[in-house]
Amino acid sequence: MLIFLIGFMGSGKTTIGKKLAKKMKYAFLDLDQEIEKQENLSISEIFEIHGEDYFRVLEKKVLVDLTQLSNTVVSCGGGTPCHYNNIELINNAGISIYLQLSPEALHSRLKSAKTQRPLLKNKEEKELLVYIKSKLDERQSCYLKSKIVIPGLDVNIENLINYISYLK
After folding, report:
1. Is 167 domain-assigned?
2. Which residue range(s) make up the domain with 20?
3. How many domains are there within the chain?
4. How many angstroms separate the CA atoms of 98 and 147, rounded?
5. Is residue 168 assigned to a domain?
């Protein structure tokens, strides 16, 4: 079985994904790290050198490759499910889980991590919250197509595993 964690950047996909994979005795993969390995560049460098369109095509290709795996938890990038019908690919390949957080909670998490995130890099603090609200509004309908939608704060891994088992 494949489990895909989706949600806005800073929602905890990697942290929760690692805990979930460990508890379920599954492998864990971060889609962005897989892209970086393949390109031998950081996500920021890919955006700078090639642009977002190139990145999204590459992201789709790597995602398709990952759908061939089993017993793996995959942490997706924040925009992954919202491009090229990726949410349908994800839902057909496994169980999608949306870690839902408010714009304010995301802002609190992201304001100190802007430099590592190419889409946030040049935003001032007030501008950052406006950007988060706007992007979240844009992506929300896509995120809500997930098979499981849970609040992203204080995720109980045992409860999450029970939800997953129910959907198997």
Report:
1. no
2. 2-154
3. 1
4. 8
5. no
Q: How far apart are CA 158 and CA 24, in angstroms?
A: 10
Exposed/middle/buried for residue 109 (C-beta within 10 Å: 0-12, 13-18, 19+): middle
DSSP secondary structure letter of residue 97: E
32 and 44 Cβ atoms separated by less than 8 Å: no
Distance between CA atoms of residues 77 and 124, nearest Å: 22
Residue 115 is predicted with a pLDDT of: 58
Residue 80: CATH number of its domain:
3.40.50.300
48 belongs to a structural domain: yes
Q: Confidence band (pLDDT; 50, 70, 90) for 126?
A: confident
User: Which residues on neighbouring strands pair with residue 99, listed in sequence order?
Assistant: 150
Adjacency order of strands within the sheet including 95-100 = 27-30, 72-75, 2-6, 95-100, 148-151
Decide if 118 contacts 48 (C-beta within 8 A). yes
In a domain, residue 165? The reply is: no
Q: Which amino acid is at 76?
A: C
Share of the chain above pLDDT 70, in %: 97
